[in-house]
Design a protein that fits this description.
alpha/beta
Length: about 170
Amino acid sequence: MHPCRVLFICTGNSARSILSEATLNHLGKGRFEAFSAGSQPTGRVNPYALDELASAGISCENLSSKSWDQFVGEGAPPLDMVITVCDSAANEPCPVLFGNFVRTHWGLHDPAAVKGNPIAISAAFQHAHALITYRLMALLQLPVETMTPEALKWALDGIGAISDDDDSEDVA
């Protein structure tokens, strides 16, 4: 079986989806192949996301802010899962992508939206990355290769219910 291919989508594809892509590629090397994209990509990866990944020892090579157009139509890599990471609590629109894959939503406050001094912004990225890593560790525990799409959807929805609401206001 090919590696399980996962696409993380948010609006700008500069922070949350980038952190998710790089971290899953790092933790799930060989078993998972992660990508990221945005419905309205900013065209650049947030430097705080790159700093956070580097401090965690995760490669930043080949990361870019790109449109989800690369993942639809002819020549697009086949996907097994699409995970949106936008923050519906902030009324941020979540992109919708159609195809034959399991879809779920792992809402996450946008660390790129945090204003303030560099320490507060960096702390927001650390917090977001910690939650992403926690969720991805839960994903890695799943026997995705043998799960039915229905069982996988149920498990992924459960992982997405792991919230960052507990202390997210303290970060800003």
